[in-house]
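Section 4.2 – Deliverable D4.2 (structural model, holo form)

The reporting period included a commitment to supply a predicted holo structure for the target in complex with NAP. Inputs used:
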Amino acid sequence: MAIIGGGVGGVGAAAKLKAAGIETFTLFEQSDGPGGTWRDNHYPGAGCDIPSHLYSFRFNPNPDWSRVFGGQPEILSYVERTVDDFGLRPHCRFGTGISSCRWVESSASWTLRTTAGEELEFDVVISALGQLNVPFYPDLPGMSEFSGPMFHTARWEHEHDLRGKRVAMIGTGSTAGQVVPAIAPDVAQLYVFQREPNWVLPKPDREFSERERRRFARLPVLASLTRLRVFTLGETMAWGAKPSSRVSKRVTDICLEHLEKQVEDPEVRAALTPSFPFFCKRPMLSSDYLPTFNRDNVELVPRAVTGFSRSGVIAADGIEREVDVVILGTGFQPWRFLSTLSVTGREGVDLHEYWDSKGGAEAFLGIAVPGFPNFYMLYGPNTNSATTSLIYVTEQQAAYALRMIRRMIREGLESIDVKRRPTDRYNAWVQRKIRDTAWVGGCHNYYSAKSGKVVTNWPATSVRYALMTRLGAATSRFTTHAVKREPAATATAPS
Ligand code: NAP
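Output (structure tokens):
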């Protein structure tokens, strides 16, 4: 078995395989260590806006989180520790990217090609590439002419000292929400270019006291209750995806109050007030982003960036603002699933072409695609949620894959391929649910493929997703085609 990607999804899947007694797997990770997004994103202020007791593996709770919302270094070391706790290092090939996977019918196996050109054969592939892994660089006039440092938040260049510099921050998503307050006290001048404002909820962050941490360690049930409380709150929030819901109205009021309290200048406040429903784009959780605009050295430029000169940034108002450094907080390309991987399934079908023919990525439960047997995706199409932990979601998906692998072992199967009809029905249901959400039109967001089809988000609660993945696995006899291994072959665990 091959796992592609050593972020929280891949590490979680590897730990689950190991705990199930399956040893025949290799985890490929292009970086030199595990962590995925938490290894790539080390910008100032980087952290998680999902509380840490929920942003943890269910099978590896951490009573020792230092605060309610963990910072990047702490989350990265937690993922690294999980790798060691579960003895995963011997299974990991760090510094090895996978560029393609090709299904070979005659051997019922996948041929994987590494970025170094090596070819390897596996029965089962679990893709754990994530959605927010490929940075989005805008293509704007004059970009290459800018003479100072310009870098993306996910590729932060720490060698540039920002102290006393004039800095442009482009973008006002969740990442900018963390970078802006972290660098504002150090820089001489900060221009924050905002194409469209975002709803900002207060972030009730604080340190856990020594006593609390000791109690979490002594009484694991306390940590579980904390997790449950946060999880339940997230489930309630999920109802807010419908603009007409009471939840949407309530959270909008909370955001407006938060803005009123935190920003002094009424003009700036007006520029920071969104005109679209709460969940239209992923909201920000922050208690220190908005007050940054009260600082004398910070200016909100409520305009899109349209270009660059040698020494500055040009916004849609036509004004050039001179800066020394440009930071691109312009996000990722989540709508382009598996964009760094070429996947060729049965009868030579290319996965990306197949998805294009469907108007954008889709899969059964966001996990399996017809014609691509023994291939499972974690954090695949329509499985993103702004209200729960991605770790929770990918654990459900890894559990689905594990159940399929166990079925292969138990029944001596060489392949399991999800059927087209249940996949089409499932995706029609997902898209019907999405029609009622705030994600469709109304603002810029990163949820849709070119065709306008929303491909990233899950349109219900995460409990519903968990139940559906379990049901999907339990009824796989009806939703999949399974092929028995030839009797001559030995019924060993798939490799
Ligand atoms: P993002 O939400 O996609 O934001 C990109 C920003 O760039 C948007 O504000 C966008 O404007 C802006 N932009 C793009 N082109 C522009 C231009 N020409 N001029 C001005 N602005 C421009 O990216 P992100 O902030 O990196 O966040 C991505 C996702 O990562 C989040 O939604 C979240 O899921 C995840 N994340 C999570 C955490 C966490 O704590 N869990 C932290 C950070 C990020 P528009 O708003 O108009 O599109």
